[in-house]
Design goal:
elongated, disordered C terminus, membrane insertase activity, chaperone, transmembrane, YidC_ALB_C, membrane
């Protein structure tokens, strides 16, 4: 169903494996691990622009949230008027409620495709999208510090033996990956929640229900990495870890850039009325200045010289 996404994802993985396979060895576990990491980085780089659009849309929605709540209170008994006023507000403020959702909807199929490609290297398979039988075999035989990239910690001992590894090796590699992935998920979620809380406090306050949901998400997502980790192949844990590191760095860069843009816009807005104040100050510095001079220099009011032409004696 998502082959139009799975094949490009597989092609990117094939490209990176060709690169790192040439530098190391095609069957090297390090080459496959680096290929998985750079596959994630490549996809995240391609999705960078939708992420920025999503952040800007969410920022705009938070700015207009007080206006939306006011309209909902005023026209709670008149749905048609509420719809009309909401459309008018959207037109005036230049935002779209779907603007924050569409980028997320674009990213979800890509990550599903990435998961399907990595999980498609299974024993007995003769192909996995762009990978032929040799590529599937190479991935299944790849090991990282003695642990199979295709194996799971919870797999039976016989299955692990078929991958050329054992439970001890899987635990030594898999558990640190799970813990680091959980910690990275925690900090990524904390950074995102702290950002949302700061913007919300600046606008409409922090509802208790939302604060409770944030606390749950702060610990639930990292726990999922620990709970689900033993049932996921090591390659998926590598994907999880790389994805969270990229997300954390991307959030810091994008949020800092948007804060800088917002500060520049704020300085521009504050500088605009300062021009009017300076002209007022100039008038106050010269209280004895004739009113005719002020009128002559007023914008939009041409200087009247007819009175000078009507008094020839004065020129003589």
């Amino acid at each position: 169903m998502l082959d139009f996404i799975n094949y490009p994802v597989s092609a990117i993985l094939l490209f990176w494996h060709a690169v790192f396979g040439a530098l190391l060895e095609p069957d090297s576990g390090y080459a496959w691990a680096l290929s998985v990491v750079f596959l994630v980085f490549t996809l995240r780089a391609l999705l960078f622009k939708p992420f920025v659009h999503q952040v800007r849309s969410m920022r705009k929605m938070q700015e207009v949230a007080p206006h939306i709540q006011r309209l909902q209170r005023e026209y709670s008994d008149d749905p048609q008027r509420l719809t009309a006023e909401m459309r008018k507000l959207q037109s005036e403020q230049g935002f779209n409620p779907l603007g924050g959702c569409l980028p997320v909807l674009v990213q979800v199929p890509v990550f599903i495709g990435l998961f399907r490609v990595l999980n498609g290297f299974q024993p007995g398979e003769t192909s996995n999208y762009f990978f032929g039988e040799e590529g599937v075999r190479s991935f299944l035989d790849a090991h990282l510090f003695g642990a199979s990239l295709s194996g799971t910690i919870s797999a039976p001992a016989e299955e692990l033996a078929s991958f050329g590894t054992d439970r001890s090796s899987m635990l030594l590699v898999g558990v640190p990956l799970m813990l680091v992935a959980a910690v990275a998920t925690h900090f990524t979620t904390r950074h995102s929640i702290a950002r949302q809380r700061g913007e919300r406090n600046a606008s409409v306050g922090s509802p208790n229900q939302q604060a409770m949901m944030n606390r749950i998400m702060l610990w639930l997502l990292p726990m999922f990495a620990v709970i689900a980790g033993p049932f996921l192949p090591l390659a998926i844990l590598l994907y999880w870890l790389a994805n969270n590191f990229w997300t954390l760095g991307q959030q810091r860069i994008v949020f800092r850039r948007i804060d800088l843009e917002e500060a520049q816009r704020q300085q521009t807005r504050e500088a605009a009325p300062a021009v009017v104040d300076s002209s007022t100050a100039e008038r106050e510095d010269f209280p004895g200045r004739p009113k005719d001079d002020e009128q002559a220099e007023s914008p939009g009011i041409p200087e009247d010289r007819s009175s000078e032409a009507d008094r020839p004696d004065e020129h003589r």
